[in-house]
Amino acid sequence: MVDTTVDIVLFEGFDELDAIGPYEVFENAAQAGADLETRLVTLEETDIVTASHDLRVEPEGTLDQPDILVVPGGGWTTANEGVRAVVDDGALPDAVDAAYADGATVASVCTGAMILAEADLLEGRPAATHPVAEDDLEAHAANVVDERVVDDGDVLTAGGVTSGIDLALWLVEREFGEDVASAVSEEMAHERRGEVFS
After folding, report:
1. Residues forming beta bridges with residue 4, ordered by sequence position
2. Which residues are catalytic?
3. What are the tens digits of pLDDT across the range 44-95?
4. Residue 197 lies in a domain
5. pTM (two decimals)
6. pLDDT for 141-186, tens place per residue?
7. Exposure string (b/e) for 33-57, b if CB count within 10 Å is 16 or more?
8. The CATH number of the domain where 165 resides is what?
9. Most Cβ neighbours (<10 Å): which of 83, 141, 151, 197?
């Protein structure tokens, strides 16, 4: 039995790097000694999910009360696609809220913050998102900050696309120590950018 479970929830039109970047960080952390298991999941059983740049991903199951839930972004500026469609539908924000209520730490990447906002998790909190969604996020009563990674304890947010890698590395450092995070950074040849806002 692993100590920490991480679910990265996928939906039609998610941004590839928002999900796959953190997935690779967490998988490398497990190889570096972190006691965690990471899964790419969906809300409902499906064979394939198609991302915003047409990458097709086979999920590993459905969302199942993880310790950490990562919500990618993608598609906020286009009607009926990606995050916009997910927010309009309401099922994923409700599931995110339920996971949070059951004790999960919830993190978003890029415009995935709009899903957290729709789940009422960001009101009065500092939060980051992609610049295209900052005004909309502020309208949901979040305190929008221009940072790559924002850690508000049980809710974390990250800015634009590549910041998801820094978010995941911060979570690895926070949960499993600086040595593991440094080993993963080195393995991925990724130089971490920006201080974590908390």
Report:
1. 36
2. 110
3. 999 999 999 999 999 999 999 999 999 999 999 988 999 999 999 999 999 9
4. no
5. 0.98
6. 889 999 999 999 999 999 988 999 999 999 999 999 999 999 999 9
7. ebebbbbbbbbeeeeebebbeeeeb
8. 3.40.50.880
9. 83
